[in-house]
Amino acid sequence: MTYSVFIDGAVGTTGLEIADRLADRQEFSLVRLPEDKRKDLSARREAINDSDFVILCLPDDAAIESVSLIENDETRVIDASSAHRTAPDWVYGFAEFREGQRERIATAKRVSNPGCYPTGFLGLVAPLVARGLLPADWPYTVNAVSGYSGGGKALIERFEQEQTIGFRGYGFNLAHKHLPEMKRHAGLDHEVIFAPAVVQAYRGMIVEVPLNLAAMNCDVKAADLLAALKDHYTGSPIVGVHDGSSMSELLLNDNEPATDRLDLYVFTSECGNYIRLAAKLDNLGKGAAGSTVQDLNIMAGLDETLGLRL
Asked: Is pLDDT of 218 > 90?
C-alpha cells in the first residue's frame, strides 16, 4: 500500500530534510504544490484533506491554521512545530522515551514531534525520573549547544555571512518555548533552567544535564543511572547509551555528518556523586526530520528505521 504524504512547509530546512528521506520510498507518495500555490489557502486545504498523512513544518500559528483546515476524520497529522507539544489531545512523538509511547504513536491521529533540545534532555532524564532514580522535584539545569541550522533561514544566513561568530548564547530571558515541553514530559515539578547556545557548525547538538547526587539525597550512583539507561534503551537501533568513564571530550565538529541517531553518555567523578549526563544528536535528524520520519513509519505500520540514517 502506498500512502500519500503532504509536507506543509516543504521548502523549509526540516521539510527539505524530510522530503529527502522519503524521496526513494515506495511506501509513500509525496503530494507537492506548485510554487505559486504553496501559500494558497484553498490549495493547501485540498492537499491536506486529500492526503493520508500531513507533516507540518511551519511556524506555530501556521501549524494551528493547517490543523483547522482538516475537514475529515481520516487525515493523520505529524506536527514538527512546537504548537502542540503539550496539548493533551496530541501524542508526543518520541517513541523511545517512555514505555508504551511507540504504541500510542502507532494509533494516533495527531502526533506532535519533539523539539531538538528536549529530545536530548528527555532522552536522558525522563526514564530516570520515571524509575524513581532521580527526583521529580529537583530544579534541573540544561546546558546545550546546537548547529546553526536549527535557527531557520535567518540564522543560517547570519552564521554563513558572519563566520567570525564562534559561540552565540541566547534565551537569556529564561522563557524559551521548549521549557513547558521538558517539564511536562519529564514529569517534573519545576521548569528547568535552560542555557542554549549556537556554535559555528551547520548541524549537530550536545545537550548536557549536570547532577549533584549528594545534594539531591539520592541513594544512587553514576553506575545505577548508566545501568538504568542501558536497560531502558536495550535493543533500540536508534538510541545508544555509553559509559563516559574512558572519554576525555565530546566533540561537535563543523562538518558533522547527518544522522538520525541519539547517543547518550554518563560521565562521573571518581566518587560517583557528581554526574554530567550528555546527549549528542543531529538537530535536523533525531531532533527534527529523522524523528518525524520515524513517527511516520510507526503510524503507517512499517519498520520504524526505514529511510533513516543510522
From this structure: no
